[in-house]
Amino acid sequence: MTTHFYYFNSVPSGSSIYAIKITDQEIMKTFTVISSILATAAAHGIVTSPTARAPGDAFKAACGAQMFSNVQSDPDGNMQQLEQMISSQKDFNAAECNLSLCKGLQFADNQASVQAFTAGQVVPMTVQIKAPHTGDANVSVVNTQTNSVIGTPMIEWPVYASNSASIPENNTNFQITMPDVGSQCATAGNCVVQWWWDSRSADQTYMSCVDFTM
Length: 214
Fold this sequence. Notes:
Its cofactor is Cu(2+). This protein is α+β, with helices and mostly antiparallel strands. The protein contains five helices and ten strands.
């Protein structure tokens, strides 16, 4: 193990000169922390209304303690950030977590937040975007049993959250009109309204899911 000594001698006359001993291991730990902070400083987005899925005990059991801690502290982070954690988590269950559906967030943790929508209902939505990255986005109804979109998107943006201009108001405050999906979405947990934003230039994907029945 290599040890580095750093001397600080720019001190007032008569003061002591201090040396700080830092090992390679400590340097690597510091670098890891800084890298983690920089990663979370990337673009972030999440649905703030209606209430979207959030992490809980079921998510922790399925996706692992490290991923739970990350999403709990950074709920609007991207998918790729979570995928990088998989190899280091012995308690990650790929089948139960199912990251590609709602970032692995579980219905069992969110049963108190199920919305009741009707066909043709106009639903206002609010999205928080902390930092933009140009991409495309849409809001769709997703069948959680098959992880597939039902019908066509209710709204979509070919250019979304561009970092070359101010974010348009309709990227963060907009309305959707619910399609008639009562035959597929009568049971809580079977369907979600999914907001999905993908920036290929940044290789970052964001999603939020709102559970509902019809």
